[in-house]
UniProtKB/TrEMBL annotation:
Every Methyltransferase type domain range: 55-157
Keyword Methyltransferase in record: yes
Entry annotated with the keyword Kinase: no
UniProt source species: Hibiscus sabdariffa (roselle)
Protein name according to UniProt: Methyltransferase type 11 domain-containing protein
Keywords in alphabetical order: Methyltransferase, Transferase
Amino acid sequence: MFRDVSSCNTYNYGDALYWDSRYIQEAGGAFDWYQRYSSLRPFVRNYVPTSSRVLMVGCGNALISEDMVKDGYEDIMNIDISLVAIDMMRRKYEFVPQLKYMQMDVRDMSFFPDESFDSVIDKGTLDSLMCGTDAPISATRMLGEVSRLLKPGGIYMLITYGDPTARMPHLNRPAYSWNIVLYNLPRPDFKRPGGGSSTKSYMEPIPITEKGTLPADFVLEDPDSHFIYVCKKDG
């Protein structure tokens, strides 16, 4: 398992200094990686009850946690490696008690006891680590921590550009005891040939072969689409 270079344009994504600099430049802005909550809502509501204690890893300055609170979610802990981002978000949401913010590296979340969360949501954080030169080690450390923090029956929801060939070797490890269901979602700005609308349901899981790959006859509607891995910890 090597570094994932399929969508990497920098090797600094695991570095707090890179993100601090970026968020200073984006002061006051907001950016949601890959998909907005409106697109992810059917998946989140299907697997994560509103009463869940949720951990949002690599929260950055995204709006997804705010949107989830508006949708009824009651307890979301947001963490990010960038203290700049965390300080900014703390000030922005200081009067929203459902949202809490802490500066933390996902590779070491020892602040939290075992089985602290019902759900962990990851929108691009594992992808960022996969761009680093120490990608396999970083991914193993992060996913080990995610598994440790999930309660039995808990959900790790990974939204990523990584197809099963790139992600399943990291996710499908016996140590995690995860049952994995895979979905595929086109990019928000994807234009279908001819301008028509799709007839397929994106809530239909995609089968995964025993080798952890997409079936040979499966065709992606959007070649640069996003994958949603729903990993349920054995109860």
